[in-house]
Write a structure and sequence with these properties.
two-stranded antiparallel sheet; disordered C terminus; 87 residues; elongated; 57% helix; 2 domains; alpha+beta; 5 helices
């Protein structure tokens, strides 16, 4: 991490990332001069190898896929909107 901080010293670049069991997101801010650096960081985000946490992976693998699909469907904003509008 120190190496990355040294490389980014003096640049106005911030890339924020989030990840979950089924998704990965990014966002951030940069100066126009540092856009290339920001895009390089985003490229690394999507091309880097992700090593799952063994405990979290084991938990996911024990879940019942049918229950997970139903739960995700119920949490979808589209499902909630259609339920409220059409029930």
């Amino acid at each position: 991490m120190q190496l990355l901080n040294d490389i980014l010293a003096g640049k106005r670049v911030e890339v924020k990332v989030g990840e979950g069991a089924f998704w990965r997101t990014f966002g951030g801010d940069q100066s126009p001069e540092d856009l290339e650096t920001a895009l390089q960081l985003v490229y690394r985000l999507f091309t880097s190898t992700v090593v799952p946490d063994p405990v979290k992976l084991a938990t996911c693998l024990r879940c019942d896929p049918a229950k997970m699909a139903h739960s995700l469907h119920d949490r979808s904003p589209a499902t909630r909107g259609s339920t409220v509008l059409y029930d």
